[in-house]
Amino acid sequence: MSKVLVAYSTHEGQTAKIADFIAGVLRGRGLDVDTCDVKESADPALIDYDGVIVGGSVHVGKHDKHVVDYVRGNRHALTGLPSAFFSVSLSSASGDTQEAEGYVEKFEEETGWLPTRIALFGGGLPYKHLNFVSRHMMKRIVEGKPGNLGTDLSRDYVYTEWDGVRRFAEDFAAELEAAPR
Ligand SMILES: Cc1cc2nc3c(=O)[nH]c(=O)nc-3n(C[C@H](O)[C@H](O)[C@H](O)COP(=O)(O)O)c2cc1C
Predict the structure, then answer these.
(1) 9, 38, 102, 115: which could join 85 in a potential S-S bond, CB 3.0 to 4.6 Å?
(2) What gap in Å lies between CA 112 and CA 94, rounded to an integer?
């Protein structure tokens, strides 16, 4: 049975939810899957895996430092394995693909990793879980974006399109099934 690692970092939890969802889809395809929050745990040895998916969210224009450090430290192993990257942001949620792609380009420059498979997923707007400053900063950012994202500070919003996440996971599983071992 092929073994897959889904490694991610998250601030408010949406990337963790997406990583868990991907893991569920892959398990449904008969794969043995571990998930790992790279901020919380020691790096699992990539030599134990047949494929790796890495995910990270964008805050203030950049992917989280922990996922950047993780990829930098494992770049060679990632390049030698079937691997993929998913980026979680509000720019993806608002349809601002150019900005979302720009974050990934910056990530590639910072890490030196050029993932062959990349997905851009809409994230969340967890107003209720943000402090006063972040909540108001987010509202201001959202008001300047296309896509009519939510501005009601008394509730949270989730913009992840789960069908797209499922397709990404299924495509990765198919790539792994076809890869020579
Ligand atoms: C303080 C803060 C700053 C953010 N900055 C950006 C940003 O610059 N660009 C963007 O597209 N999304 C931005 N977002 C949206 C996050 O990418 C989105 O909430 C995502 O779901 C966070 O994922 P996580 O919960 O896994 O950390 C920001 C969110 C917060 C709370």
Answers:
(1) 115
(2) 28
